[in-house]
Amino acid sequence: MKILFKPVILIAIVISFSAFLPADDCVLYIPSKEGSEMEYKSYNDDNKFTGMNRTKVVAIRKSATKQEIEMQAEAFDKKEKSAGTSTYVLTCENGGFTVDMQSMITEEQRKSFKDTKVTITADKLDIPANPQVGQTLKDGSLKMSSKTEDNPIGLNLTIGISNRKVAAIEDVTVPAGTFKCVKITYDVETKMLFTIRSKCAEWYSKDIGMVKSEIYSNKEKLQGYTVLNSKK
Asked: pTM (2 decimals)?
């Protein structure tokens, strides 16, 4: 079984903000307008198209100290056939923002747990209010498990994120345009029947979200990348 970790194309879903400010003053690294859409295209190390993802801001809910952004994502395979949709909520609360690692579970991984009762425990990854180059960020882990009468041992998926840091603040050019971005890098260990270790880099821009991501083998060989193709 081939299990691939995809950066929180998800991920296209990270927010940064000013600490200890009201919800209305959050500095968003994702579109803040309902109906906003982003299209991402993914490629392998030979620049061959491998699939795409469309994300949409479905709803924005605000209170005095909290802001929730409901997102919907639809994945497509290399033939541009829909592989399923998912929804998730991003929260800026009390001057802090975290990303639920459940958003990192790929459609392929979810299908492996089809028709089973699933239990998920997941950490939340924080993003600093004012990222500084060289800054170390919080690590995280996720565990997804299931058991059936036919398989009492169950099936388990674990994802571990470590060595997160702010690597750079730089301009990045993709098909959708050129954007000033914060680059975040981290190591990933995915276990499901076997273990895959990889390294990731992601670039985020204010009011846009993820602009680009790259995934490397543990030996730092590029395996694939995703870019923001268009936005509206």
From this structure: 0.79
